[in-house]
Amino acid sequence: MNAAQDLGWSVMPLGPALGARVDGLDLTTPLQDEEGDALDALLLEYLVLALPGQYVEPDQQVSLGRRFGEPLIHPYLEPIDGHPEILRVVKEADERATFGGEFWHADITFMNPPSSVSLLQALELPPLGGDTLFANQYTAFETLSTGMQEMLAPLEAIHLYPGKEETDPAAVAVHPVVRTHAGSGRRALFVNAAFTTRFVGMTEAESRSLLEFLFAHQTRNEFVTRVGWEPGQLTLWDNRAVLHYAMNDYDGHRRALQRVTTMERIR
Ligand code: SIN
Known about the structure:
By secondary structure, the protein is of the alpha+beta class. Helices cover about 20% and strands about 30% of the residues. The two termini are about 30 Å apart.
């Protein structure tokens, strides 16, 4: 028996690439040590955890987030009232664009330290559509040729908040192109189409073709799992090892969620 089974949780993998649905845990009461350890272990193994029926209160979402890092107060986006660490992820019925735009990304990579984990809870969902896709960046790195892995390993890249200038220190960060996960020790590809603009020491034009290759490679179908939503579902993902993409396929319906993103603690 593993720890999750000992606790009576049921863990159902969502696909071969990553992800699991976990039933039987209750995040509305403080986690006991063994529950926290089991949750950490599942996130390390599956990278994305869909936890239906949680309906956590904002304070509970923030305090659960603290387990994974420091909850971020976003420098540019409006939080919900009374909770500066919680972002509204909303597309109204009459809107056409989704919250983050139609880009594969990890959250908040334009900051340093970058994010560790995001916790997104669904409040209101369209009758159909609005799933979130996740892509495994360990596999993305490990399936590159050794020649490409060796070339990428020493590189760093610029991550810039869209519409901002590199001269704005709040909007830009430099990160290794290959990020070693502090928990697993595994290496993941760490660039993304939303924020990565160029390699350090190269121009955008010089960086473009290699970045475009990596953006296409890192979201190949076989690295991806599609995660659906239920009201009250909390989904946790590890931004150190996955990218995500919110489907925009429910025009005419409201979709509302709330997100806490935590920043990696530097040890
Ligand atoms: C996000 O980019 O954090 C939002 C994901 C989603 O809306 O599914």
